[in-house]
């Protein structure tokens, strides 16, 4: 009974000094990244842009698999769909590229709704292959559409490419800015979602779906929400990727390798954390920088690293590091802060730690 | 008219092969609730190993390589399960899916490195071109017929092992209740490895028959995994004969689709699969649950 009286000395924290410092550092980093077009050359700018969209894709896959427990091997369905919607709108209907980007995301979200209702019928592990079948179906279906170049694909006319220039800003700068914005939004939106009540529900579902449901969590609704939201984001990112590549074809746009890269980035970096995809994308680019010339050896190494990480440190590089030093730059957990002086008299010594985690 | 009957006949025989792809996937899922994403790539690996063994030993027909390939793939499956997959099993279904996905990428690119991206075909000998005449001007190839007989027999054998032997009893018990089976003295790590080993026996046979039937390359695995998966879901989980029927329905959809346009072959199969998933999410022949 006496413990209850002491509740006044207990508070719940969702941030720490470190996380506030990290936020300040992230702000500075954003300033540096925003001004990047002014001080780096075009080659590096396009590399940086690629980094941004891979981070966005990985962040969304992490939200799906790491938090909502939806293991999708078919995100390339949304990516390719977004790309094709952009090509269709700009080439055949004369839309401006920026408006087409947004509508590509909307189409992704609209397709995700019936898509979810079909694949959610499958059990967790089989769902993974079900999503893959859907992506393959898209690939084959788009290969049949003659007006979009059928199996060999289609290029964006120069007029559309020029329409990306915004006043004095060159299209490379505009595309880089958009990619940076998408990577930022995917990270920030995931962060805000996870800190919200819905985030708590998601974590509960991930840890034990049956228990979460018995506690009143509507797991289907929240999974559907995450699937639709990532469908929007992935299609939007896909549209951006193909706006910069200027050419799209079904085998490339619906390639399973898109999912492979998202998975390897998330697994190596640390699944179920927001920092993980950032670390993972860095490792991914580092490995690519040194191994890309080796052709298939690159993918063998990437696959092997992912398998070893999954076996030896399932929470990935960041997860292992964060657990060891109890660090979280983007804290999504609620922490119970107990005043030790009041409580030591009440709790047995082995039991009284200053910060109990409340996931 | 005879063209349609021919498509259906071809579908039945090809479907038996898909069911053989699916039997191993289904067995592993049934026993340990694990989906082996590298299943298709292991079939491709078997086909390449058969090609290599045939060259090495100078066999006249690739069928003879099965003498060596079957025990070899059993060992591969057993060791794979014991060393890499068993440690990943548990509450979290994510780990086995992602690990086998990683293995799939490693096998595909390893095969690309070892055997190049060229399309290959296995040589079965005279049986490849022989055929048996049927009434009404139809003919069935001896090879597809042999494939049908061998696949059905192997699925029957698997069914017999599962329901009539001590090993099968332990497998079914583990499938029903892992921890109780363990308490009853079932050595689960060994049993899981046996299940994957047996699955790899079906994979070895499937690899040889598929490689003789049509050409394949290092990245054919994902398609084969998808066919196996579709056969399992169409037939309904937990029923091997349902899987056989599922494989045949899928293959018939593909062969009739191909009659409209060659590019419609795969698409027709996927569309029929998705339609069945929408209409009968439990599959067409689900195992009755008591």
In a nutshell, what does this entry contain?
The complex is a heterodimer of chains A (359) and B (290). Chain A has 359 residues and is mainly α.
What does this protein structure show overall?
The complex is a heterodimer of chains A (359) and B (290). In chain A, α14 runs parallel beside α17 (316-325). Helix content of chain A is 70%, strand content 5%. In chain A, the strands form 2 sheets. A 3-stranded antiparallel β-sheet of chain A has the order 1-4-5. A two-stranded antiparallel sheet of chain A has the order 2-3. The model of chain A is unreliable at 1-6 and 349-359 (pLDDT under 50). Chain A is globular. With 359 residues, chain A is mostly helical. Chain B has 290 residues and is mainly alpha-helical. Chain B has one domain (2-217). Chain B is 72% helix and 2% strand. Chain B has a two-stranded antiparallel sheet. In chain B, α2 (39-57) packs across α3 (66-85). Chain B is globular, with a radius of gyration of 19 Å. Chain A binds chain B through residues 65, 69, 71, 73, 118, 121-126, 128-130, 132-134, 136-137, 140-141, 143-144, 151, 256, 260, 263-264, 267, 271, 295-297, 299-300, 302-304, 306-307, 310-311, 314, and chain B through 29, 33-35, 37, 84, 87-88, 92-99, 101-106, 108-110, 112-113, 222, 225-226, 229-230, 232-233, 237, 263, 266-267, 270-271, 273-274, 277-278, 281.
Largest interface: A-B, 43 and 45 residues
Described by strand count, sense and barrel closure, the largest sheet of chain B is: 2 strands, antiparallel
Q: What is the mean pLDDT of chain B?
A: 90
- Uncertain runs of chain A are 1-6, 349-359
The count of helical stretches of chain A stands at 18
Strand order of the largest sheet of chain A: 1-4-5
Q: Distance between the terminal alpha carbons of chain A, to the nearest Å?
A: 25 Å
Total tally of structural domains of chain A: 2
- Proportion of residues in helical segments of chain B: over 70%
Gross morphology of chain A is: globular
Based on the structure, what is the oligomeric state of the protein chains? heterodimer
Strand fraction of chain B: under 5%
Strand segment count of chain A: 5
Secondary-structure-based class of chain B equals: mainly alpha
Can you tell me the overall shape of chain B?
globular
Biggest sheet overview of chain A: 3 strands, antiparallel
Strand content of the residues of chain A, in percent?
A: under 5%
Number of strands of chain B: 2
SS content category of chain A: mainly alpha
Can you count the helices of chain B? Answer: 11
Could you tell me the mean pLDDT of chain A?
84
